[in-house]
């Protein structure tokens, strides 16, 4: 999810020349390339916000890869082959590029697109697509090369928004963050999550599905031949906004769902921890479309919710027109503008949030009931107008009460979009320290 602040807000949140570590007294220099990238990322995020914001296939050039809806690679075999979560169904060489016009791949990074096994929120076996990236330069740090499972933020529910596609086209707004992680020498795995690329509707903001997808692509990266990764590989998780939900759920699920992963640390930023609170905040706002997308995502994950049965004519029209929407597109812009400041009852005969059926499923995906099994850095912008600060602070209190090793950091003058940039140096520093074996400094 992305928010817009004015140019004055952008100036207030400009990154310092030397980024300070989360841990007091430590500093973590950021490379010149990363600093330039972060400045560009700020512009990109604000731009998106203002407009919203088992065979191996052969390699293909970035500019000849079809969109996922037209690419047989994304269509899993039926039935799925036997296996376990994280097993590779198919893979192919791909490209990682930051250049949307020339599409020149980063020459120092090996890239694969993968289709791998995972599970839905209700435990069904599913296929999920994603990307695995490994720097070609040998790892010279402590221990083995770390693996970062990076959870992306909101981009929409259409298949063409899938990160495995946009990262190969140079059009992913988080490509610069992923590039900064690669500059650290880390391998990076990026899940598309359920239904984003693969057939079926994307289960947008269904945390239990997203958390599993994030953990399973780490498993997939370890099992993919040619990566140099294995089960001893140190693993980190990082995500912001929708990615913050995914990261938070990965932190809560890891001990029970993927106990073999060598999870060292998790960064969860701008976290929509309580979807009821988030939806109530979004209703009547400029970005209420995000709540509508979440309703579609929950309906896809839990068919008994029967979203369409609640809709009036306007709601059915909106649902029909939003099946393949990407926010950073003409259709996305039109939808956001067209629904801005509306109420749920403008599109529904009954507000689903008032029903026990919907509230039960939303509360099943509320973070804060399980202690994360690894140190967590949780960050949030104090003036975030999209993802309420209060519900994030409640998550912090709940995790601390459970005994979490939690570092909590607030950016006083940051809204939602500036927060994604403000967190980057802190996240890189936090994960670097965890990969180096240094203890976190909890401030619960």
Automatic annotation (TrEMBL):
Q: What is its EC number?
A: 3.1.1.3
What the entry lists under Pfam families is as follows: LIP
Q: Does the keyword rRNA processing apply?
A: no
- Gene Ontology biological process: lipid catabolic process
| Biased composition, class Low complexity, residue ranges | 60-71
> What is the organism field in this record?
Thermomonospora curvata (strain ATCC 19995 / DSM 43183 / JCM 3096 / KCTC 9072 / NBRC 15933 / NCIMB 10081 / Henssen B9)
Q: Where is the signal peptide?
A: none
Which domain of life does the protein's organism represent? Bacteria
Provide the residue span(s) of the region labelled Disordered: 1-35, 60-84
Phylogenetic placement of the source organism? Bacteria, Bacillati, Actinomycetota, Actinomycetes, Streptosporangiales
Keywords for the protein's UniProt record, in alphabetical order: Hydrolase
Which InterPro entries does its entry note?
Answer: AB_hydrolase_fold, Lipase_secreted
Q: Where is the composition biased (Basic residues)?
A: 11-23
Name used for this protein in its record: Triacylglycerol lipase
- GO MF annotation: an example: triacylglycerol lipase activity
Keyword Metal-binding tagged: no
């Amino acid at each position: 999810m992305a928010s817009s602040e004015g140019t004055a807000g952008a100036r207030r949140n400009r990154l310092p020349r030397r980024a300070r570590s989360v841990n007091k007294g430590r500093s973590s220099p950021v490379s010149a390339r990363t600093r330039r990238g972060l400045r560009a990322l700020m512009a990109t995020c604000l731009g998106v916000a203002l407009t919203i914001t088992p065979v191996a296939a052969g390699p293909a050039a970035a500019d000849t890869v079809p969109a996922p809806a037209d690419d047989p690679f994304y269509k899993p075999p039926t039935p799925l082959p036997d296996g376990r979560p994280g097993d590779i169904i198919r893979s192919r060489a791909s490209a990682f590029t930051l250049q949307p016009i020339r599409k020149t791949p980063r020459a120092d990074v090996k890239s694969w697109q993968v289709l791998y096994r995972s599970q839905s929120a209700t435990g069904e076996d599913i296929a999920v697509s994603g990307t695995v990236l490994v720097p070609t330069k040998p790892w010279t740090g402590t221990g083995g090369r770390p693996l970062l499972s990076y959870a992306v933020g909101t981009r929409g529910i259409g298949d063409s928004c899938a990160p495995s596609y946009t990262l190969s086209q140079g059009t992913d707004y988080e490509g610069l963050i992923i590039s900064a992680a690669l500059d650290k020498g880390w391998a990076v795995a990026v899940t598309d999550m359920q239904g984003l690329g693969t057939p079926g509707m994307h289960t947008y903001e269904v945390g239990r599905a997203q958390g599993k997808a994030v953990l399973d692509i780490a498993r997939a990266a370890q099992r993919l031949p040619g990566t140099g990764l294995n089960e001893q590989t140190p693993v980190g998780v990082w995500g912001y906004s929708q990615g913050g939900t995914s990261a938070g759920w990965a932190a809560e699920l890891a001990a029970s769902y993927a106990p073999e992963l060598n999870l060292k640390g998790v960064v969860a930023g701008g976290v929509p921890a309580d979807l009821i609170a988030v939806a109530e905040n979004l209703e009547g706002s400029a970005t209420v479309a995000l709540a509508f997308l979440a309703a579609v995502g929950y309906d896809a994950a839990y068919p008994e919710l029967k979203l369409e049965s609640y809709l009036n004519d306007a709601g059915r029209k909106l649902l029909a027109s939003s099946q393949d929407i990407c926010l950073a597109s003409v259709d996305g812009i039109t939808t956001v503008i067209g629904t801005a400041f509306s109420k749920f009852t403008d599109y529904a005969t009954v507000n689903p949030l008032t029903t026990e059926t919907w509230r039960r499923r939303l509360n099943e995906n509320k973070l804060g009931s399980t202690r994360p099994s690894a140190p967590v850095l949780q960050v949030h912008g104090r003036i975030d107008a999209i993802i309420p600060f209060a519900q994030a602070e409640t998550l912090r209190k709940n995790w601390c009460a459970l005994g979490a090793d939690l570092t909590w950091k607030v950016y006083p003058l940051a809204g939602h979009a500036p927060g994604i940039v403000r967190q980057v140096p802190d996240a890189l520093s936090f994960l670097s320290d965890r990969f180096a074996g240094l203890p976190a400094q909890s401030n619960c």
